[in-house]
Design brief:
The protein is α+β, with helices and mostly antiparallel strands and 409 residues long. It has twelve helices and 16 strands. The structure holds (2S)-amino(hydroxy)ethanoic acid (HGY) and manganese (II) ion (MN) (2 copies).
């Protein structure tokens, strides 16, 4: 098994070395936003690798790239993750899971073994939502969740919607419904992903078996006050949008801190007119709150809504646009057990854990049997250029996944 492991790790190392060259921000991390040149280059690389293995390859209406190898049964297991990234992110988030899928297929093909199920290796598009603020584009498309109108609602910082960007990219947004997949043909979905946190590394475990994926609520909030001269306007007659937002953000943060291990983030902030000597007229900022207790998310958002109402009562204009609501997703119980058996039988230390990160599995897992495998993130960090997981650990996840696929009935 050792030489299998080394061989697969070596192939993954080569894949990562190639794919990390695909970025819009060379020397400043990985930036692969959907419907850009970087997407094209990712799709091209993944298609090439799959074609070299003799797989049947296609790109669907959402920009997902899918390679198929016929199994003994027509039932399909999709093994996938996303090829898009955050801006200035890392080389492993998403892409590593697709490459592991390719190496799972390569293992069967190289050893002339027909897998028990037909395998679909999938590179999914726009899991992050980094460009348009939506996210989970391909995984939601598989479930037929995108209307043409939805595709016009989400816009990037230049005002281009999904709809416009898809057209410019060469895809037909009106055909998005064709990406919907008949669930009856799906045995299920398996995703390999870097953990992106410190749990596995701290516990010195080689493999993580995911129990649940956290619930997430995301919004963009806009507060409009009044621009004024920063020197002459007295403090008590200002409608300073930034000071108003700071009070709300502080209040939200206090709630989150008193509900461990809930998390809350204000990651994106835009101020207008954004000048040193003008009282800020307008602020738009994102909020992202996560917890496995959905009632805490509800309570936290209610508190934000109350604060916005209070601000409107003193003359501010406020807007709160939801961009994502995902409830907790539970991985398939039986599959978690089999994954543990596989990891144990291969001698890889392992543990069960919850995912604080969102994944395509969080969407797909609402409709079909789903499981996730994690590998340790070095330093417990992700969404940064320094993101790193060892290809050896990724190769262990490949071997666990193969053993699992051969075992499930
Ligand atoms: O935000 C997340 O957890 C994921 O990276 N999309
Ligand atoms: Mn991510
Ligand atoms: Mn990811």
């Amino acid at each position: 098994m050792k030489n299998q492991l080394d061989f697969i790790a070596d192939r993954l190392e080569k894949h990562i070395a190639e794919t990390k060259k695909i970025t819009a921000t060379p020397n400043k991390g990985i930036t692969r936003l959907p419907f850009t040149l970087e997407s094209k280059r990712c799709v091209h690389y993944l298609e090439e690798q799959m074609k070299q293995l003799g797989m049947t390859v296609s790109e669907d209406a959402s920009g997902a790239v899918i390679g198929v190898i016929q199994g003994k049964s027509e039932e399909r297991i999709m093994i996938g993750s996303h090829y898009d990234s955050v801006e200035h992110g890392g080389a492993y988030d998403g892409m590593a899971g697709i490459l592991c899928g390719i190496e799972i297929a390569a293992y069967y093909i190289r050893n002339n073994i027909i897998p028990p199920y037909t395998l679909e290796i999938a590179g999914l598009n726009d899991e992050e939502g980094a460009r348009f603020g939506g996210g989970y584009l391909s995984s939601k498309a598989f479930l037929g969740k995108w209307s043409t109108n939805d595709l016009k609602q989400y816009v990037d910082k230049n005002g281009l919607s999904y709809y416009d960007a898809m057209k410019l990219y060469g895809l037909e947004p009106e055909h998005m419904i064709r990406a919907q997949r008949p669930l009856s043909k799906w045995k299920g979905y398996l995703e390999i992903h870097v953990e992106q946190g410190p749990i596995l590394e701290n516990a010195k475990k080689e493999i993580g078996i995911v129990e649940t994926i956290v619930a997430i609520k995301r919004y963009y909030i806009t507060i409009v006050g009044k621009a004024d001269h920063a020197g002459t306007q007295p403090m008590n007659t200002r409608s300073d949008a930034v000071m108003a937002a700071m009070g709300l953000i502080h209040h939200m943060n206090e709630y989150v801190l008193s509900h461990k291990p809930m998390v809350g983030t204000v990651g994106e902030i835009h101020v207008y007119p954004n000048e040193i000597n003008i009282v800020p007229e307008e602020i738009t900022f994102s909020i992202d709150v996560r917890s496995s207790k959905e009632e805490w998310l509800e309570e936290c958002i209610e508190l934000v809504e109350e604060d916005l109402k209070e601000l409107e009562g003193i003359g501010f204009k406020c807007k709160m646009k939801p961009t994502l609501t995902n409830t907790v997703t539970h991985m398939k119980t039986e599959w978690k057990k089999v994954l543990k058996e596989s990891a144990d039988s291969l001698g890889f230390s392992n543990m069960f854990l919850d995912s604080g990160a969102g994944h395509d599995a969080a969407i797909i897992g609402k409709a079909v049997d789903t499981a996730m495998l994690f590998v340790p993130s070095v330093g417990g960090r992700s969404h940064i250029p320094e993101e790193y997981s060892s290809e050896k650990d990724l190769a262990k996840a490949v071997l666990v996944a193969i053993d699992f696929i051969n075992k499930i009935d």
